[in-house]
Design goal:
By secondary structure, the protein is mainly beta. Helices cover 6% and strands 57% of the residues.
């Protein structure tokens, strides 16, 4: 990724509906706005964006990726963000790919 402008929709899916491949309802969006920047500061490897969960306003999201972590063949995404429902609360998100 070398530019901002990427967006994705977050869906809420009922566990039972997964077996039937029933689509869920869109509950929010994640938009990437900058790459290699945190605010107005250069930060190689980071990308910033917003998380919007209806009806709350967009909140900042800061993420970093790593590929082939520890020569494991797995990739990782690490994010910290401001909670959609509470501007004074923050969350961390870590995702690791499967083999």
């Amino acid at each position: 990724m070398n530019a901002g402008g990427t967006a994705a929709t977050i869906y809420q899916v009922d566990d039972e509906a997964l077996e039937d491949a029933t689509p869920g309802s869109g509950v929010g969006t994640i938009s990437v706005t900058n790459v290699n920047m945190v605010g107005s500061t250069s930060a190689n490897g980071w990308f910033t964006g917003t998380l919007t969960v209806s009806p709350d306003p967009a909140r900042p999201l800061y993420c970093m990726t790593a590929t082939d972590v520890g020569d494991s063949g797995k990739n990782m995404l690490l994010c910290i963000g401001q909670s959609p429902g509470d501007a004074d609360a923050f969350y961390n998100l870590v995702m690791v790919s499967e083999d």
